[in-house]
Fold:
Amino acid sequence: MAEFDVDLFVIGGGSGGVRAARIAAGYGARVTIAEEYRMGGTCVIRGCVPKKLFVIGSHFRHELEDAAGYGWTVPSASFDWPTLIANKDKEIARLEAAYTANVEKSGAQIVKSRAVIEDKHTVRLLENDRKITARYILIATGGAPNHGASIPGIEHVISSNEAFHLKKLPKRIVIQGGGYIALEFAGIFAGFGSDVTVIYRGDNILRGFDEDVRTHVRAEMEKQGITILTGCTVSKVDRHGDEFTTHLSNGSSIASEQVMFAIGRHPAVANLGLENAGVAINPNNGGIAVDHFSRSSVDSIYAIGDVTHRFNLTPVAIREGHAFADTVFGKREVKVDHANIPTAVFSQPEVGTVGLTETEARAQFSHVDIYKTSFRPIKATMSGRDTRVLMKLVVDGSTDRVLGCHIVGDAAAEITQAVAIAVKMKATKADFDATIALHPTAAEELVTMRTPTARHVRQAAE
Ligand SMILES: Cc1cc2nc3c(=O)[nH]c(=O)nc-3n(C[C@H](O)[C@H](O)[C@H](O)COP(=O)(O)OP(=O)(O)OC[C@H]3O[C@@H](n4cnc5c(N)ncnc54)[C@H](O)[C@@H]3O)c2cc1C
Structure:
């Protein structure tokens, strides 16, 4: 009889867990994967995918408005929120089924249950109180929205989870948060016609992004009529029937039909039985502490994706899951390289970024050249839309290597994915310059910026 019931037990059927289960099963491992909610996890069910569908849907407002300058007359367009929700739900159900089928096709077994760790080789399924022993346990439980410090009326506040299932489009919504989820939903609701107010406690939105990006995005969002209030927080939410009054720390208040918080996410480590096996938490970020191979403090237990709170992005969770399966079952050690991960904010306008910000580069390199341009995109010349694109390259002046690329404007995410290859390959500014422009595009600016707009040379210490 085999020593363990299975070779691998995966807790969590999201981006990372599913990839790990499929690849491990492909190596011949006997794999069981537990999912307590819906197969596909956050990205598919209530993250990237439905969010992007909403972004696309809300963007039609701009397209319809812009069409007039090109000769189109569009009879007054109307939008039906329930149709959007129903069609989105249908697409998400299709994806969930595809995820389930792909896991089953790989030979891994799915159990629909919450799983908790009993000891370093045992998990318990809460659905039927069954215990399963495993040579290896992979924790891929993802994360969940934060609601922050408890304030009066917090029970009236929704998170992104609920925003995907609202019965009707709010005429007015207050969104607390300045990160990518808050801004994406601000653009979504504004695009569909809601009056949106963003509340952020810091001095500007998109903390951690390049300063020029932060300024540019804020100005563009404000041009579209989104109100952004910084330096304050929500202190209380009162309910009056279907309406809410949001009280702010600066003494003012706002009436709305919904109040949403998107103030960060925490790793899903609670009530998982980590203490039963002695799995350590990383004190710096609250996620499961892991090494370069995603191994936890317990040698039979690994953790990947958002539960480790390293880079909370789907492709990262997938890469970590794949690397885990290669390392443990594929007989080849694979470390995930977390440098130069491209990332996007699907705000309106969109942000694409890879590599170092100007601030980070200037802290690390003694000579940094900046190439920056802001221009009116060709489409806006005839649509009359008041909008500008931002493109910025951060270059190591000593080696000429491109350290970072930051774009705000249409297709920024698509452009950034391609530029990320060059940045990852350590391309130099001279390589960018040697590339002939593709005309007429916005992205051609990336290969035609000849002269630095700023040069920062740190004087050697005397
Ligand atoms: C609104 C939103 C938008 C996003 N947009 C993007 C984007 O545009 N691009 C991007 O790259 N990333 C985006 N993300 C982040 C992305 O969704 C996550 O980084 C990714 O899903 C992490 O994958 P994971 O496998 O670590 O966890 P998850 O996908 O969260 O999967 C974890 C799964 O584990 C299950 N689970 C938890 N505990 C247990 C248990 N004890 N037993 C059984 N099952 C359990 C959960 O139900 C869940 O299905 C977004 C996230 C949100 C919330």
Q: What stands out?
A: The mean pLDDT is 97. Residues 11-17, 34-37, 41-43, 47-48, 51, 114-115, 140-142, 160, 181, 268, 272, 305-307, 312-315, 317 surround flavin-adenine dinucleotide (CB under 6 Å).
